[in-house]
From TrEMBL:
Family statement drawn from the similarity comment of this UniProt entry: Belongs to the binding-protein-dependent transport system permease family. FecCD subfamily.
Gene3D superfamilies in the cross-refs: ABC transporter involved in vitamin B12 uptake, BtuC
Annotated GO CC locations: plasma membrane
Organism of origin: Radiobacillus deserti
Keyword Cell membrane attached: yes
UniProt keyword list: Cell membrane, Ion transport, Iron, Iron transport, Membrane, Transmembrane, Transmembrane helix, Transport
GO biological process: siderophore-iron import into cell
Subcellular location per the Swiss-Prot or TrEMBL entry: Cell membrane
Keyword Cell membrane applies: yes
Name of the featured protein: Iron chelate uptake ABC transporter family permease subunit
Amino acid sequence: MSNSVKLIVLTGLALLLTSIYLFVDLGTNWEYILGRRSEKVIALVVTGTVIAFSTMIFQTITNNRILTPSVIGLDRLYLLTQTFIIFVFGSTSTIVLNENLNFLLCVVLMVLFASLLFKFLFKRQQNIYFLLLVGLVFGTFFESLSEFMQVLIDPNEFLIIQNSMFASFNSMNTNLLVISIIIFILATAYSWRYLKYLDVLSLGKEHAVNLGVDYDFVVKRLLIVIAVLVSVSTALVGPITFLGLLVANIAHEFFKTYKHTYLIIGSILISIVALVGGQMIVERVFTFSTTLSVIINFVGGVYFIYLLLKENKSW
């Protein structure tokens, strides 16, 4: 089966699952139910798309298939920003009540952090792994700082922060759907000119430089795009650690190619199938006795251990 046929099969499967989720068992009050389901499906598709897209780009520029953007602390920075805003201004401030303003503020801060991290470190150390190590340290620092402020604030305000701390596909922040879609389209349009370099970047920095790619310039801009996309997914459902790892590696195994034209579109379709199909199973099989984030973290955690054991055997 060629990769083009595989993409067609995945597209058909995604459309089939989406149609079943939307139209089966609508009942008599179908207008209200269809509206609610449509809103949730759009949020699932946007979340799956940005996570798969950002993880595939991140794994390519780091040349490592067991890493995700969360390793450099971007999702923890988002939680720190939310905690800091409530800690300083309170839960009734305009920045908290105006969700779009709050979201844009977080996006700007995350982009600034990614830019400064890259610019500061690459002046001293031309090594992406050093960037990852420092990012990991910053992530731990952000998490500790958030916990410090959380124990000092009012318990009622802590409950507001708690909604952002854990991933939830049952209570997604659909109020941010429009601005999330606009930001995703702008980020994709911005990154479009650099996506053609991904096949070369997957060969490693030395080969990319030898083939004429302005490595630092391209990687810095792709990191900014990743920061924006992580902020979109975190704002919609909360921090998701293993979904990107899962779908990106399944795409590599399924397509068996280095061409990112197939890998990016394939990983997005796999992510949509996993989220829409998983949410349907949670609602109709488990009847909300568990959550999709728990299933994803369990399956993703097991797959992560498998990848580590597999890499260990290859040595």
